[in-house]
Amino acid sequence: MTCVIPPPLASIEAFRPVFMIVMGVFLMIIAWRLAKGLDGWSARLIVAGSFLLGFGYVVVLPLYDAGILPRFSLKANTPVNSPDAYAWNMVKTFVMNFGWLLFGLGLAMHAKIFTATSPGQNLSPPTPVTNESTAQRAT
Question: Taking a C-beta distance cutoff of 8 angstroms, is the pair 74, 82 a contact?
């Protein structure tokens, strides 16, 4: 007598596309909310990068996992790759890499990492310090 075990409903292979879709939408929403209070190029770069990453995580990568888009491989034992596989690999590579680049540059500009300050620029006149405490002033 053979025992048949049903396949798991929540396997990692089944849950991975759902996780990527949720992550992509969450990234776009958080970036949009962050950029709503900003102005200039940092907001534009954050939103552009998050939209590229959102397209990659919500559309392209789940279609790869589902087997709808052909995979491109450089291994010696694989059959000849089609131009469609090469084109989708280029789209995936561009969207994911350029998306992270724009998103990271936008966050770096928002954090003012690229601003150069001279050593004497941040010097302000010293504030006078008194030795009185608030308790002594009250009396």
Answer: no
Could you read off the pLDDT of 79-107 as tens digits, one per residue?
667 888 888 989 999 999 999 999 999 99
Residue 23 contacts residue 57 (beta carbons within 8 Å): yes
Task: Specify whether the CB–CB gap between 53 and 96 falls below 8 A.
Answer: yes
* Cβ atoms of 30 and 12 closer than 8 Å: no
CB contact at 8 A, 61 and 122: no
- Which residue in this structure is represented by tokens 């998306």? 99
In Å, how far are 37, 73, 100, 107, 130 from 96, measured between CA atoms? 25, 18, 6, 16, 57
Q: What is the pLDDT of residues 34-43, one digit of tens each?
A: 898 888 899 9
Handedness of CA 80, 69, 92, 88 (dihedral sign): positive
Report domain extents, the chain. 12-72+83-112
Using DSSP's 3-state secondary structure scheme, residue 81 falls into coil
